[in-house]
Design goal:
This protein is α+β, with helices and mostly antiparallel strands. It has one domain (about 1-245). The chain has helices at about 1-25, 155, 215-225, 240-245, and strands spanning about 40-45, 50-60, 65-70, 75, 80-85, 105-115, 130, 135-140, 150, 165, 175-180, 195-200, 210-215, 230-235. An eight-stranded mixed beta barrel has the order 1-2-4-13-12-11-6-14. Strands 9-8-10 form a three-stranded antiparallel sheet. A hairpin with an 8-residue loop joins strand 2 (about 50-60) and strand 3. The chain is globular. The protein starts with a helix and ends in a 10-residue tail after the last helix.
Length: about 250
């Protein structure tokens, strides 16, 4: 009986943790890029550039060639440009490593796990979707147990953060967006938080660390993404992308 009780307790804890993680648009185990059939490839000219282009790629299966889906479109990134998401064995240009509040958008490969917006779930959207309200917040306080998570203040019951993004008030940027699972597997304190694809203010205004685009292109991305295809954001300066394209089995840009 004690063993059965113990197993039930473990199962309940597992379900609770899974539910909590899903609230932030993530999963317990990081999806493998090798299994991805959809990628949003974002390229800038250099580390400090704040503008660039995005191109959608897809493939039929993991052995197929990546194929471009439609035309590329302009994007803006962080006000400080791009910075590596993590130290990659020191074998590439590690000029900048992403940290909380540094104004850099993360460079690397990141799962795209859920969508959000101010309205009801748009027609055709297949990603898990969160309708923002006045209590929806993304916690950027690195001391909080909810760091780098989207939560509903009225549901979590433990307001242990002093800083967060009140998402419904950030307009027009958060009218529609996608959660980028950066610093998520696992979450590391101070490494950066609340990274999204979202609507831009305009073509010249960079973000605090997200990747932003025109509203019609954001709509295109959200409708195109399918969780069954393990979608990813691939984001880095062009020279680095070109040097890693073959080894990392990234889509060919030309």
């Amino acid at each position: 009986m004690k063993v059965a009780s113990y197993l039930i307790t473990i199962l309940c804890l597992s379900v609770a943790i899974t539910a909590q993680v899903k609230m932030s648009g993530t999963t317990l185990v990081k999806p493998s890029f090798n299994k991805s059939l959809q990628t949003v490839v974002v390229i800038t000219d250099d580390w400090d550039k704040t503008t660039g282009t995005a191109t959608l790629f897809e493939r039929k299966n993991t052995k197929s060639e990546w194929k471009r889906n439609g035309e590329s479109f302009p994007i803006v990134v962080g006000r400080s440009g791009l910075a590596w998401a993590e130290l990659l064995n020191g074998d590439i240009d590690m000029a900048k490593i992403k940290q909380e509040g540094d104004g850099n958008a993360p460079a690397g490969l990141f799962p795209l796990t859920s969508a959000f917006g101010t309205g009801s779930k748009p027609s055709g959207v297949r990603m898990p979707y969160t309708k923002l309200d006045e209590y929806t917040e993304c916690v950027d306080d690195s001391k909080s147990s909810f760091y780098n998570r989207i939560v509903n203040r009225m549901q979590v019951g433990n307001f242990d953060w002093k800083s967060s993004e009140k998402m419904a008030s950030i307009m027009p940027e958060y009218e529609l967006g996608v959660f980028v699972a950066y610093n998520t597997f696992p979450v590391e304190k101070g490494r950066g938080s609340c990274i999204f694809l979202h609507v831009w203010k305009d073509a010249e205004t960079p973000t605090a660390g997200c990747t932003a685009m025109e509203s019609r292109n954001m709509e295109r991305v959200v409708v195109w993404l399918s969780p069954a295809k393990t979608p990813y954001l691939v984001q880095m300066p062009k020279k680095v992308y070109d040097s890693r394209q073959k080894a990392w089995k990234l889509p060919k840009l030309n």
